[in-house]
Amino acid sequence: xxxxxxxxxxxxxxxxGASSGIGQATARLLxxxxxxxxxxxxxxxxxxxxxxxxxxxxxxxVPGDVRSPEDQAALVAAAVERFGRLxxxxxxxxxxxxxxxxxxxxxxxRTMLETNLEGTVWTVRAAVRQFRxxxxxxxxxxxxxxxxxxxxxxxxxxxxxxxxxxGLSGSLDREVRAxxxxxxxxxPAGVKTEFAIGDGRTEGDPALDDYxxxxxxxxxxxxxxxxxxxxxxxxxxxxxxxxxx
Length: 245
Description:
The chain is α/β, with parallel strands linked by helices. It has one domain (12-238): NAD(P)-binding Rossmann-like Domain (Rossmann fold), CATH 3.40.50.720. 41% of the residues lie in helices and 16% in strands. Strands 3-2-1-4-5-6-7 form a seven-stranded parallel beta sheet, sandwiched between helices. The two termini are 32 Å apart.
């Protein structure tokens, strides 16, 4: 008999990077399954459009920058104030700049380091503090990349941020599992989104058609959240059938 899945109806999930791509697809799938979502991203207009689509009873927009610990604390606080609790967080916000180690500017690389790695830390810390305060467990899902498992040429700094996310997740699992907090890392290969367009990828490139779709990664995220509480998935590596691993 297959394991039963958890009903996410009424569950409250904070999602960063929710203005596009994987984060947006995840928010849609969560609401479809009955969850309430708290949407974090810098582009307030896109968040509000998504709230209009999902319904104000189901979604709340909290514009902010993952590079700010204060903004991430505000995201969690808004979830509790609006919906009464926080059950899960999906740390999806990120950016990519592809090229050789000397190609990008110092500022570009600093922004990527702060967004991908520091931003994940601030998001996770804020959520774990709330999970501990509520003493009811919770889920942390970090969206990293296969680049965090096997870095390739012309992505050294990007891969470093993703290896950092994978390391953060593995260590955090060992730290908080006994408290009923599950930590999962989703590591997709290329995904057909606006990610890195103009910074190593070209919009309309036919090669993108062979990539994963954002809905594929959203499926993995929601599947992890739906697992019975007695089990956990610590790492999920994803490739499209047309991408070489």
